[in-house]
From TrEMBL:
Heterodimer of a large and a small subunit. The lineage of its organism: Bacteria, Pseudomonadati, Campylobacterota, Epsilonproteobacteria, Campylobacterales. PROSITE patterns: PROKAR_LIPOPROTEIN. GO terms for molecular function: 3 iron, 4 sulfur cluster binding; 4 iron, 4 sulfur cluster binding; electron transfer activity; ferredoxin hydrogenase activity; metal ion binding. This is Ni/Fe hydrogenase. Belongs to the [NiFe]/[NiFeSe] hydrogenase small subunit family. [3Fe-4S] cluster binds at residues 222, 240, 243. Keywords: 3Fe-4S, 4Fe-4S, Iron, Iron-sulfur, Metal-binding, Oxidoreductase, Signal. Its cofactor is [4Fe-4S] cluster. Residues 178-251 form the Cytochrome-c3 hydrogenase C-terminal domain. GO terms for cellular component: [Ni-Fe] hydrogenase complex; cell envelope; ferredoxin hydrogenase complex; membrane. It is found in: Cell envelope.
Amino acid sequence: MTTKKPTVVWFTAISCNGNTHSLLSANSSRFELFLNSFDFIYHPSLTIDKSLEDILNQEEKIDFLLIEGSISSHRDFFTICDDSTFNHLNKLASKANYIIAVGSCASYGGIHSKFVQNDDICSINEAINKDILENLKHKIVNLTGCPVHPEWILQTLFTLKTFGEIALDEIGRPKELYSTLAHHGCTRNEYFEWKVEGNFGQKEGCLFYDQGCRGPMTHSSCNKILWNDISSKTRVGMPCIGCTEIDFPRNDMLETKKNIGIPYEVPLGISKRAYLSMTGVAKTFRIDRLHKKLME
């Protein structure tokens, strides 16, 4: 007897499609396992057997509804198939057992919510009718990131498929993926400890003190679960921009805000007074080995 595979529907709302591109960069073996384990019945760019109208009109339940992009009730500017993303979302959500917000726009409203003025753009959690939320088998899962790591999408789907639930933090992110910081696993941590600053694009040096790196205060596992299994932003000289946090995007993201030469925000888990004391001690030492590597 063949077991019916759980269905997956991917709805793209107001989005740059960055999370779709991220999904396509997943490890090929893992992606093949996903396709063999789930029935991926609809994606606006990747599937051809069913249209969005077919999904909206079907009576069958959707096991996993994944939403990419933020939501608006406007029909004049953000229309798909002659209706608003808000209406489409609620029709799809009413059929779903599990809902996953893919990326920061779907999770919190993201870039569109911040920069598009005089509109009602919001996250899917804010847009879905409350009676629909009460009938879901699980709270909405927020997979934040701009874009989200492809492995986080697949890992969340397999966890929910296997166990029916996943532990979430206070803002709806899976704890197993967002309980650590981007700083953990960063190859530049020794430079951070000794306050040796590097520059954008350099292979060596910390990017926290001048370049705006948010690694020490960003909940993310992207330095543990590497992109393409080999790398991350900080490993190639790009400061972490904190794209998994609810305040993303911030102004002047590639600049460290300071007060009298001291970073305005200090790493999570330490008081400002203690941090200043540690910084003072570290700056009294010069680690020639680190400075030499920085100059190479």
